[in-house]
Design goal:
The chain folds into two domains: about 290 residues, 3-Layer(bba) Sandwich (FAD/NAD(P)-binding domain); about 140 residues, no CATH class. Helices cover about 30% and strands about 25% of the residues. β13 and β14 form a beta hairpin. It is built from 13 helices and 21 strands. Strands 1, 2, 6, 7, 8, 9 and 21 form a seven-stranded mixed sheet that branches. The chain starts with 9 loop residues before the first strand and ends in a 9-residue tail after the last helix. α1 packs parallel to α12. It is of the alpha+beta class and about 475 residues long. It binds flavin-adenine dinucleotide. The site of flavin-adenine dinucleotide has 37 residues, from α1, β3, β7 and α12.
Length: about 475
């Protein structure tokens, strides 16, 4: 709370409590900033609560490239019994499988322990801005409108709401304004892994494997399917050009989709998360358009669950156990920052002296129907995300982190993963604490070398040839 009339309410206000916002709030508070985390929804966690895996944190060679806040989160989750483990899809990536039920507890525990204040059910609307310096944000909730002031702001809204309201420029989608489809994750309980894996071994032509040379490692498809089966986990991606899914789509039994991705969320519940549903041509910044798609996504959930039960051994007695708290949005605004991460940076695995986070996910652009662009990173390594990607042009005390980073469309497709969002959030939150400690009035005056050194001392992985 303010010390005097002119003292802002907070040092750091973080707008949006998804993976980026959680990372930012934890890091800001850990580094001494009086921190408020605002979210429009009924809780924090964003897509971390959908049941999907945390990608972008372990490269295709199996080396961790994200630490810090991610490690803290996984440690807390493991303590609670909600960490399933790190596995390989034997196609392109390694990932952390998590139980979203326990993830909710883990996030709230960490935020409470760090002393982060949380304001839920609250939408950040207009900002007060002068000469690029934002002094306050007007929020709306059941109590009405209120102006909250702060020395710094981190925009983790996914859509760049705060930055755009402050005057930042943004890009949206592709050359023809095309956007990645929206999807609704769901979970099925009572899945028999052994039966599923036996089916996969007997029908390898249905499964996507070996799309990255680093993961293929000179193996044949059959050898890769053997590795997948040996892993003993329901980590199976049925591909749309395999007969199982292709024929079902042709028959009209399944909607057109690129994949049915199956990943474990709880061994005890024999539960998996399914990433498959999709509708394209939805602009998630147009709430009417997004709302209109929800019913169709729920229909697809039922269709996919029935398809699996009727056609895939292991699913005979499975039942629907959860639907993600909200529709998953892959792509809206990308804020124009001091540096734009490029497709070439990503696929060549470029390193930068200003790197404050890393990524390792392939360029991953879902399209309508059966389409999806997937381009692996060179040698299964990683690329750096420079500080300038978090720094919106024209603004002095605002950083962005997460899905709305400054990147071209392809680079965005590789850096929007939750591992990278947590790491960008950690960097942005730490930067705001440094800004306040050093009494700066422009983020551009911040010494990135100091930021990198604090991040590394707090577990971030920034160096190395990964
Ligand atoms: C279908 C789908 C599948 C995916 N699969 C994977 C996967 O398997 N693994 C992986 O790692 N990543 C995956 N991703 C990508 C990843 O989930 C997201 O890119 C990432 O979670 C974005 O994190 P974020 O913190 O930037 O935004 P979000 O998690 O979207 O969080 C944004 C938060 O901001 C809040 N908010 C927004 N506007 C406001 C406002 N004006 N005021 C207050 N609050 C606001 C929202 O309520 C939300 O909680 C997937 C994404 C989708 C959509």
């Amino acid at each position: 709370m303010p010390n005097s009339k002119s003292e802002p309410n907070y040092d750091t206000i973080v707008v949006g409590g998804g993976s980026a916002g959680v990372g930012a709030a934890l890091a800001a508070a850990k580094n001494g900033a009086r921190t408020l985390l605002i979210d429009a929804g009924p809780t924090v966690g964003g897509e971390l609560l959908s049941g999907m895996t945390i990608d972008g944190a372990i490269n295709s060679r199996g080396e961790p490239i994200i630490g810090g806040v991610l490690d803290d989160l996984i440690q807390e989750l493991d303590k609670l019994g909600g960490y399933v483990g790190a596995f390989c899809d034997w196609r392109l990536i390694n990932y952390h499988c998590i139980d979203p039920v326990f993830m909710q507890f883990a996030i709230l525990n960490l935020l409470r322990d760090a002393g982060v204040e949380i304001l839920l059910y609250t939408v950040a609307e207009e900002v007060n801005v002068k000469d690029g310096l934002v002094t306050g944000v007007t929020v709306r909730n059941k109590s009405g409108h209120k102006l909250l002031t702060s020395k710094t702001f981190v925009d983790c809204s996914g859509d760049g709401d705060l930055s755009v309201s402050a005057g930042a420029d943004s890009n949206i989608g592709g050359e023809n304004n095309e956007l990645q489809p929206v999807s609704l994750m769901f979970r099925l309980m009572g899945v028999e892994t052994d039966d599923l894996l036996s089916f996969v071994q007997a029908n390898p032509q249905n499964v996507a494997v070996g799309e990255s040379d680093a993961i293929r490692g000179g193996r044949t498809d059959l050898e890769l399917v053997d590795k997948l089966v040996e892993q003993g986990q329901p980590t199976v991606f049925f591909k749309s050009d395999g007969p199982l899914l292709n024929d079902a789509i042709d028959r009209g039994e399944m909607y057109p989709t690129a994949l049915i991705m199956i990943q474990p969320t709880s061994t005890a519940r024999k539960e998996v998360c399914i990433n498959s549903t999709r509708i394209d041509k939805i602009d998630a910044l147009d709430t009417h358009s997004l709302s209109a798609g929800v019913g169709k996504l729920f229909d697809q959930v039922m269709q996919c669950a029935s398809f699996l039960k009727n056609n895939v051994p292991g699913f005979e007695n499975a039942y629907l156990s959860a639907i993600a708290p909200r529709v998953g949005i892959r792509e809206t605004r990308r804020i124009v920052g001091e540096y734009e991460l490029t497709e070439e940076d990503v696929f060549t695995g470029r390193k930068s002296p200003d790197g404050i986070a890393k990524g390792c996910h392939h360029i991953d652009i879902h399209q309508g129907g059966r389409g999806q662009v997937r381009i692996p990173i060179a040698n299964g390594g990683s690329f750096d995300i420079p500080f300038g990607c978090l720094l919106p042009k024209k603004l002095r005390n605002v950083l962005v982190a997460g899905r709305c980073l400054s990147a071209d469309r392809a680079a965005h497709g590789a850096s929007r993963l939750m591992g990278n969002c947590l790491a960008m959030g950690q960097a942005a939150g730490t930067a705001t604490a440094l800004f306040v400690q050093n009494d700066l009035n422009d983020m551009r005056d911040l010494e990135v070398i100091d930021l990198r050194s604090i991040l590394k001392s707090q577990g971030a992985i920034l160096d190395g040839t990964h």
